[in-house]
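Regression test case RT-17, inverse folding.

Input:
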């Protein structure tokens, strides 16, 4: 299944697409007895999945379907709990960064829930930066609490997968190692377009990832290039920070980011960034000037 969140008459609703479907079942109409909050839904999803399947198969289901093409999407989890992002987790990205050394353990930083936006929402170019950069990332959405979880058990705690855009202001990030500040301007964390449940992606370590800026391909990698596997990242984190349903763990970006291109290439207002991940879809956002 694919979980979407969308705006309807000023409120956020959840839509679920079954495999192969181009429309979503509007849960507020089809299953008003289920939680309307995506984190609550995820927390007990195994008990709700059967209800959703039943309603989708009901003869009333066409009344409850909404066309995905025209749905005003927001991030599938509009306000995640924690967002923890791995830095330097692709061999190709390590090799393109002249200052990076092979890490002996996973490296993490946080993005803040207030930075999250959804598909088709604009990324605001902050006044303090001239070096805003793109990074496509494959991200796991946690479905069950994880504390000191072993690597073999780690994936059982994942609800599903999504695309996370780790937008980065390089001049802010690299000046005095301000990674938190460089990664957390408003709108710097597009997520979406949906969360694909774990059962639909049996090999998260075989996902092709591509970034296009104004139609030109900039990143073309695969999660097969990870330095630390997803179970390693999750187990490592869970020994230090308890992960909870609705938290997001992102797995780093492959080569091709703007800052390490020769010559460097940064985003500008008017640019359109399209991130494409196999088995998930497309997350697209336009960059606009921050006029506030
Ligand atoms: Mg990143």
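Golden output:
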């Amino acid at each position: 299944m694919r979980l979407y969140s969308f705006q309807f008459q000023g409120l956020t609703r959840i839509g679920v697409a079954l495999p192969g479907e181009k429309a979503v079942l509007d849960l507020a109409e089809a299953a008003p007895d289920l939680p309307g909050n995506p984190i609550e839904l995820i927390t007990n999803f195994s008990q709700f999945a059967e209800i959703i399947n039943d309603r989708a198969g009901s003869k009333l289901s066409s009344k409850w379907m909404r066309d995905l093409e025209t749905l005003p999407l927001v991030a599938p989890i509009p306000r995640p709990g924690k967002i923890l992002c791995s830095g330097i987790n692709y061999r190709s990205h390590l090799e393109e960064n002249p200052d990076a050394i092979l890490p002996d353990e996973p490296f993490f930083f946080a993005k803040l829930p207030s930075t999250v936006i959804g598909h088709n929402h604009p990324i605001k170019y902050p006044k303090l930066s001239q070096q805003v950069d793109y990074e496509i990332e494959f991200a796991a959405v946690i479905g069950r609490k994880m504390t000191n979880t072993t690597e073999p058990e780690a994936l059982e705690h994942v609800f599903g997968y999504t695309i996370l855009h780790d937008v980065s202001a390089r001049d802010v990030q690299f000046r005095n190692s301000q990674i938190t500040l460089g990664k957390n301007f408003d709108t710097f964390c597009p997520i979406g377009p949906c969360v694909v449940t774990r059962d639909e992606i049996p090999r998260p370590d075989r996902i092709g990832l591509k970034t296009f800026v104004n139609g030109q391909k900039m990143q073309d990698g695969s999660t097969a290039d990870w330095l630390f596997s997803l179970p390693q990242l999750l187990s490592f984190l869970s020994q230090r920070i308890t992960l909870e349903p609705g938290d997001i763990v992102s797995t780093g970006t492959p080569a091709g980011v703007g800052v390490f291109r020769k010559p460097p290439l940064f985003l500008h207002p008017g640019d359109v960034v399209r991130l494409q991940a196999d088995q998930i879809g497309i997350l697209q956002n336009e960059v606009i000037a921050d006029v506030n």
